[in-house]
Amino acid sequence: VKSVKHSMNPFCEIAVEEAVRLKEKGIVKEIVAMTIGPKQAQETLRSALANGADRAIHITTDARVDQDMQPLAVAKLIEAVVKKEEPQIVMLGKQSIDGDNNQT
């Protein structure tokens, strides 16, 4: 659905806010936000950058993440990014709000 506004899930907002706190304390050096979705999902990354993320990664797909992509597929994409980026810590929201199935 192209006209739908993409916004950051509130649980992910909390994760970004906590990451910013850790950076301010000098515990982490860089905050990298990530999203999986259509081109319009860039809005979510812009929010993360505006809230203090240093960089953003967008895995673009035309699949409906809330319907066509199962949590295992999303987890494998996140795993691939983690292996490539080698972060100090990975922070995620506790659940999505689209499917609300407690799997991020």
Question: What this model shows, in words?
Answer:
The protein has 104 residues and is α+β, with helices and mostly antiparallel strands. Helix content is 38%, strand content 12%. The protein contains three helices and two strands. The chain has helices at residues 10-24, 42-50, 71-85, and strands at residues 32-37, 55-60. A two-stranded parallel sheet has the order 1-2. The chain is globular, with a radius of gyration of 13 Å. The model has no long low-confidence stretch (mean pLDDT 85).
Which features does this protein show?
single chain, 104 residues, alpha+beta, two-stranded parallel sheet, 3 helices
Q: Which class do the helix and strand fractions yield?
A: alpha+beta
Distance between the termini: 21 Å
Helix content estimate: 25-40%
Strand count, sense and barrel status of the largest sheet are:
2 strands, parallel
**Number of H/I helices:** 3
* General shape: globular
Low-confidence region ranges: none
Mean pLDDT: 85
Quick overview:
The chain has helices spanning 10-24, 42-50, 71-85; strands at 32-37, 55-60.
Give the topology, please.
Elements: H1 10-24, E1 32-37, H2 42-50, E2 55-60, H3 71-85
Parallel strand pairs: 1-2
